[in-house]
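Continued from yesterday's entry.
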Amino acid sequence: MTGEITTGLRARPLDETTWLDFAQLVERHNGVWGGCWCMGFHAEGVGRTKTAAQNRSEKERRVREGRAHAALVYDGPSCVGWCQFGPTDELPRIKRRRAYLDGLTDLPDWRITCFFVDTKCRRRGVASTALEGALTEIARLGGGTVESYPEDTEGRSVSASFLHNGAVSMFESHGFERTRRLGEHHWAVTKVVRGGHQRAVRR
C-alpha cells in the first residue's frame, strides 16, 4: 500500500520493515497516551500493571507476527501519524462497550480504532491520509464491512489531541454512514469496502 494526496503525504502499512519508523514516532511522544504504544484495543490491553516497555514489546511482537495493522503516514522520510485498523478479533476492546452491545446484530469484518498525529503536523490532513491508507490496505486484504467509532464535532470546539477516534465528518467524507449512536457525541459508522486480490486472514 502506498497512497498519496495533494499535500505530499503518503501512507504505508505498519509491518516489520516500517516498525522502526512507527517506534520513533511513538518514542518522540513519550509512548503516546501514557505509554500505550497503541495496545489499548488489542486483547492484552493496557493498565496500571503494564509498563510502557511491556506495551512496546507486545506491540513489536504483534507487528512482527502480522497480528497488528495500521496505516502509517509519511511526510518525506518521517512517519508523522497512523490509523490503527484490524479484524474484529484482533481489536476486541472498544470504548462505550455497553452502548455498542445494546442492539448489536452483527460484528463487522474490520475495525478502525484510533488515530495519532505528530503534534507538529496536526490539521494538515494526516488523519485523512491515514484513513484512506487503511481503507486501501483493507481492500488489498480482502475487503468487507468496516466500522469505526468517531466523534461528532459539528458546532463544537474539540482539541485535535482528544480526537483519538477521528471526527464523524472525516469518515463521512470517505463514504462512511452513521449506523448507531453510542453516546452524546459518538457514533458507530460503517462502510463496505470491495476486496482486492488477497483474501483477508481471519484470526
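--- second protein ---
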Amino acid sequence: MKVQLEQRLIELRKEYESGKKIMEGIELKLAELERRKTSLSETLLRISGAIDLLEEVLEVSEGAQELQVKENLTAAGIVEVPDLVRQPLEKARKILEEAGLTTGEIVEQRGILPIGVMVGEVLRQDPKAGTKLPARSAIKLIVAAKGKVLPSLDKRSACNCLSDRN
C-alpha cells in the first residue's frame, strides 16, 4: 500500500509540474495578448483622431466652397431663394435679408389651417425655394393668421366614432 501511495505521489508531482508549465505558458500568452490589445487600442485611437481631423477639414473646405459659390452668385447679382415654409414671420424676414432678398407682400391666410401650423408661420412663398433671382428681389409670403384644425370625419376616425351621424 505504501508503494502505491508513493507512486501516486510521484504521479501527482509530475502532473503538478506539468500544470505549472502550462499555466506559465498561458500567462505568457495572456500578457502578449494584453500588449497587442493595448497596441491595437492606441492605433484605433490615432485612426479615430485622423478621421475626425479629416472630416473637419472636409467640412471646412465644403463650407468654403459653398460660401464661394454663394459669393459668386451674389457678385453676379443672382441669389437662391431659401425655404421659408413653417418659419415664423420674423425669422423668415431675417433669412431673406441674409440671403440678399427682401420681404415682399405679406398675405394673412385666415380660416382652417393644416394641422401643426402655428399662427404667424409662413404657409407658402412665391417664388418657391431654390429659385434663382436677382439680388434684392421681393418674396411674397403667405402667413397663417389662425390655427384652427378641421378634424377628419372619415369612417375610421375617432371623431366619427363619437359623432351622432352614425
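The mean pLDDT is 83. The chain has three helices and five strands. Will compare against the first tomorrow.
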